[in-house]
Predict the structure.
Amino acid sequence: MWYDRKARIGQAKQTYAKLFRYAWDGITSFSETPLQVISALGAFLCLSGFGYAAFLLGIKLLQVFGYLKELEVQGFTTLALSVVGLGGIQLLCLGIIGQYLARVYTEVKARPHYSGKREIARRWLERLGMNPNAGQLLADCGAGTGAFAVEMLHICRVAAVDDYPESLEILRARLPSELVHQGSCTDLPFPDASVDFITALDVLEHIEDDHAAMCEMWRVLKPGGGMVVTVPALMSLWSDWDVSLRHFRRYEHASLMALMRGVSPQIVECNYMNFFAFPAVWTLRRLRGAGGQDAGGGERAEDKVPPLPVNSLLRKMFVWSSCQTSIHWPFGVGLLGVLKKPIA
C-alpha cells in the first residue's frame, strides 16, 4: 500500500564522527576478532622476517662454498630484518595479551550471578512495556562498569548514572559521553516524569536513606513507566563481603515491600531471587566466618566460575526462578522488586 510520509520534525544530531565512533565501538567492544587479526599479522611478520633471514643465511653459506657468488644482496638487510622480525614479535605479544584480557573479561561476564541478573532485568523491562522501536529512555542508576547499559544500547536509549569517579571513568570509556551522567539515586540529573524505565541493580543497599532514593527515582519516572530493582537478601547472609562493599543492610521480603509501598500502590512483583543457590551460599559464608576469614577481602567461593555445563545450568535456574510468577520463594540470596507508575 502506497502512502505519503510526512517530513520528520527536527534534524539529526548524529555527526559522521559520532556515527564512526558507534561503528568502531561495535566492531571492537563485542568481539575478539580485531585482537585475533593483530595476532595473525604479528605471526605473519615474524615468520616473514625469520623466513627471509633464513633465506639470506642460506645464500651466504652457499657463497662460502663457492656457489651463487654472482648474487649480491642489496640494501640494509640487517636493519630490515630487525624491524620486521622485532615488530612482528611485538604485535604477536600484544595480540596474545589482548586475547588473554578479553577472555578474562568474557569469563567475568559469564558468571551466572551477574549475567543472569542482567537478563532478568531485561525480561522484566519487556513485560513492563519496553519496545525496541519506541525510542524509550532507560536510566540505569548506579551503572557501575556499564555492562547492563552497554547491553541495552541496541534496545532503547540509555542514560548511565553514577557518582563514583572510578565508575564514571569506566563508563565514559565504554559509552558515548552524552549517555553518561554524574548523579546519585538521591539526586538524579533528570526533570520530573522524563524517564520511561529505571533500573537500580544492587544499588539501594549502598544508600543510607533508601526511601529518599526510591522517591527520587519515582519522581523522574513517567506515568506508565516501570522500575526494576534488585537488592541482596537476608541478614543471615551478612558477611565480610557486605562490609567491604559498604552495604548498609540486606533486605527481607517485608522490608522491600514496605519500601516500594512507600512510593507506589502498583507493585508488579516482589520475590526472592537465587533460591536454589541459597543453601550453598549460606553454608559457604558460615564456613568462611568460622574459619577466621570474615575480615574483608579475598575471593568468595560463590564467585568462582564453575565448569561450563554447571555454569549454564545455574544461570538458567537463576533466570527462570526470578522471572516466573507462580511460586513465591520463602528465601533466596537476593530480592527482586518490580513497580509500575500508574497513569494519572
